[in-house]
Amino acid sequence: MIKLLIADDEYWVRENIINMLDWNQYGIELCEPARDGEDALLKLADFRPHILLTDVNMPFISGVELIQKARAIYPELVVITLSGFSDYEYIRQALLAGSIDYLLKPLEREALDMIVRKAISLIETRLNYEKEQENIAKDLSLARLLIRDQEFSDFFADANVGSDVSELESRFEAYALFLIKLAKSPGARMDDALTNRIRIAIKQAAQPFEGIVVKNLYASNEFILLCNAEDRAGLCSNLLEAPAFSGGVSIGASRRYSSFTQLKKAYDEAVSALTARSFSNVNVFFLIEDTEYLRIQKWISVRQEKELAVFLKNRNITRLRRLIFNDIGVESCSDWRFIEVKQTINRVAWLIGQGISADRPGAYAFMMDDIAEMLNMALESLEPAEVCGILNWMIDEALGTGEDISAESAKQTVRKLRGYIDENYFERMSLGSLAQKYLIEPSYLSRIFKRETGENLIPYINRKRIEHAAEYIRDRKRHLSEISYLVGFDDYAYFNRVFRKTTGRSPSEYMKMARG
């Protein structure tokens, strides 16, 4: 709300001004009025008003002196002068001192209304300009961060990009790389505001050491800290206690290096350290040294691989599920180490794909692509139930079995599901969460959706998201990482792949074409 201070040595003039207009309609809050120039200076300091309406002829400090002193201290103050007909010289001096206009006594309501609106317009113009400058500064700051994020993300992904480490070499005598993986929590998607809060939290936890914080664009919910901390375990403990990570976080730390030519090696060490955590474990950290003598258990034997192939060939879905979820133990994988879960799940998925590729050449390849993406994301998010749901879906897709429901009931369910997706495409959706919403087994939900629409469920969700992403790109107002978030992708790399698969172009190529 805009604040206005009235300064006049005559009580009835002050009261007349207060009662002449309905100030709330102007969005103006009246400060306690000042009795003279000295009192006005004190109240300017106390209330910090936007507008000063002052008489030019007052005792102790004249209105002109008040304007000069006030404008020197508060250059953005908007001043309106109040005077009598005989005070022309005072008016002239007041205007020279910075008053925007003047009012003559006795006051008229229309004149006061007009000049107050003029003052409000000036203030709003200035505030809008300041907001624009602030937004420009934020955009530039965000652009710089995005450029740095992109450069580091490309480098860590081992993309074919050059890396100029001279700036880093000049800032750090030595460093360790800390890989910070946030646990996903429902409703807490990684938008720009949350990303910024996490950057700040990581930097604060790393104090007093100077650090560089990077958001890895190619890995969901992953941040990287480069920091010259000798006590790596102590820094990891500080990070675990940061309030911003109340939803859960896991940290892997590399060795300390003196040369940034070893940066990729440091990143790979941190990734390797994180694979030692249990699959459902968060709020833990591992130094790379902790994993040097780590024993990795193989959960699927050669005999079980052969049995899996036989059950697939004989289309024995009951034995196949029992083998995968009970005998191999995928249903209890939350107690395994992350690396053990990833190796086992990827092996099972590959064997299922191999077992049916001969019967359905080409037809299954596109679906396998989507399933592989979904499995990888569920693995990285430490979601055992979602992993099991996707595997069940994969088994049903491979064997085409499962209990049936009435055709009419299936149509109603799919109609509701399509409507929900079309309206809420930007929300976090998984096969498991949608199946739970409609009280149907995940694999069966996927199958009836394909039967009723001719399109697989996850590709349908992705297509809707990409359609809206293309609209955002053509709108020319947002950067690609923000668009990725707005249409429902937490992982920019996944957004990039899906966009290219759907449109035949990468998002950046599409942007160049759409924006000329």
Question: What does this molecule look like?
Answer:
56% of the residues lie in helices and 11% in strands. The chain folds into three domains: 2-129, 3-Layer(aba) Sandwich (Rossmann fold), CATH 3.40.50; 166-291, Reverse transcriptase/Diguanylate cyclase domain (Alpha-Beta Plaits); 302-459, no CATH class. A five-stranded parallel sheet has the order 2-1-3-4-5, sandwiched between helices. The protein is α/β, with parallel strands linked by helices and 516 residues long. Helix 3 (63-73) runs parallel beside helix 4, helix 10 (302-313) runs antiparallel to helix 11 and helix 13 (365-380) packs antiparallel against helix 14 (384-399). The protein has helices spanning 11-20, 37-47, 63-73, 88-97, 109-156, 166-171, 192-205, 232-240, 263-274, 302-313, 317-327, 338-357, 365-380, 384-399, 407-424, 431-437, 442-453, 457-475, 480-486, 492-503, 507-515, and strands at residues 2-7, 28-30, 51-55, 78-83, 99-104, 175-182, 211-215, 222-227, 249-257, 284-287. It is built from 21 helices and ten strands.
